[in-house]
Each structure stands twice: as structure tokens, then as C-alpha cells.
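Support request, please re-run this one:
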Amino acid sequence: MHQQEHTAHGAGPRPVAAAALTAVSAVAAIVLAAWGSGAFGGTTVQDAAGGYLSATATPVAPAAAAFSIWSLIYLGLLAYAVWQFLPPALASGRQRALRPWAAASMLLNAAWLWAAQLGSPSVALPATLVVMLALLAVLCRMLVLHLSTPAGSFLEATVSDGTFGLYLGWICVATVANAAALVAALLGIAPGEARPALPGGTSAAAVAIIVLAVAVAVGVALALRGRISPLLSFAWGLAWIAVGRLTGPLAMPEVGGTAAVAAAVVLAVAIAARLRAGRPGRTPTRRSKEAPA
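Re-run finished. Output below.
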């Protein structure tokens, strides 16, 4: 079992202040999420940006039920924020390195919801994609930090590695959907319209995107050394793309079938990688130096 190193001044005022900022960021993300769902008089995300962000806007948009994963992610972010005030987290050099990135990811999530409310698709869609790409970069940085130093406890592995892993996998799917919405708007394809406007038609383009995403996911699985939370949420997103294209108003059997196979492949790769890394609960990474502050 790896013994997590602690900094001599880990529980001082600055870690407490950073933990407080993380907690405020989590609350802001949750409040903005409620606003984005239509609470407090806000426009729902599916109705924002001319409808291009809805579950039936493009061939790679996941079905509406897919977004229920946000409940789990927000619960994890809240648990992470509360855990930051406990002595092990305050004294952890690993968390000292992760905390600013965690806060940034939450604030960027809030910023995306704000950008979606900017009205015209020509303004809202580019803004949301820029924010989404920044969020993706932040979560990738967190993954690197998580991989560089093993968690000090099962609780840390769950609330830190697990939460942000799920967050990353889902944002990968959301980024593809966001980019597809912008492309559709630029090409003059109305939300929910499937007319051929790309080489080979929109469905062929969607199939190509899904196949490429799976290839990337398999490569990432090899680098994750047994960590499966990003792949689980990625497979979840692909599965709901399949549901959305096999049923509903934007049914595209070839896209739905490809997405279903892709979800199964990603899930199988995730399970195989976890089994190869060792029994559940065992840290698969080799001991390495603590992540820099």
C-alpha cells in the first residue's frame, strides 16, 4: 500500500482558503446547472442556442436520458468539495496540486451554462465550444496529475480520481456533440434535420466521428493503467447516442448501430484494462514522486 506524502505546512491557512474556493466553485456549478435546467426562470439548455444543443439536434447528440449522469457528477463534485476540508486532504501535496484545476473545471462548467444562454446560435455555439475545449484541457491536466501520484486512500480515489474521471469521459462526448452543433449551424442545417450537407451525408460523417472516438478511447485505455471511470462515462455517452439514433425523431439506424457497437467496445476495453491492472481496489500505478504543487 502506498503511503501518501504530506507537506509540512499542508494544513495551513492557504490550503483552507483553496478548499473554500473549491467549495464555492462547486456551489456555483450546481446553482448554474439548476438555472440551465430551467429553474430560477432560466432557459433550458435544450431550448438555448436555437435548439442546437438539444438531444435531437445532430446525429451525435446523446438522448435526453444520458444527461442524468450530471446528477452523479455533481454529487461527486460536492463530495470532493466537502472532503477538501478534512485533514488528509488539507495536508496532501497531491490535492494541493489538483485543487486549482478542480476549481477551474467547476467554474468552466458554470461558464458553459452561461455561454449557452447568449441567445443567437452564431454567438452561443462558438462561445460554448471554446469553453468546452478549455474544460476538456483542464480535466486532461487533472488526469495527468492523478496518474502521476497514487491516491492516499480509497476515499480519495473515489471522490477525486473517480469523480473527475467520470467528468472527463462525459465531457469528451459533450465536446463532440457541441462541435457537431456548431458545424451544423455553420452549414445551415436546422436542429433535427438530417439532409446531406457533408461529404457522404451527415450520417456518414457521424459514423466516422464515432469510429474515430472509439479508436482514441482504446488508445487512452492503454495509458490509463486500469482506471476505468473516464471510459465508463464515455461508453455511457455512446450508448445514449445509439438510443437517440435508433429511436425518436432523428432516427438513423446506421449511426445508432455504430454507436451501440462502439459503446460495447469501449466498455469491453475498460473492463479488460481493469482486470489486467489487477484486482479491484488495487492501485495499478507504480510508485512515483508526488505531483508538484
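The chain has one domain: 15-277. Residues 69 and 233 are 8 Å apart (CA to CA).
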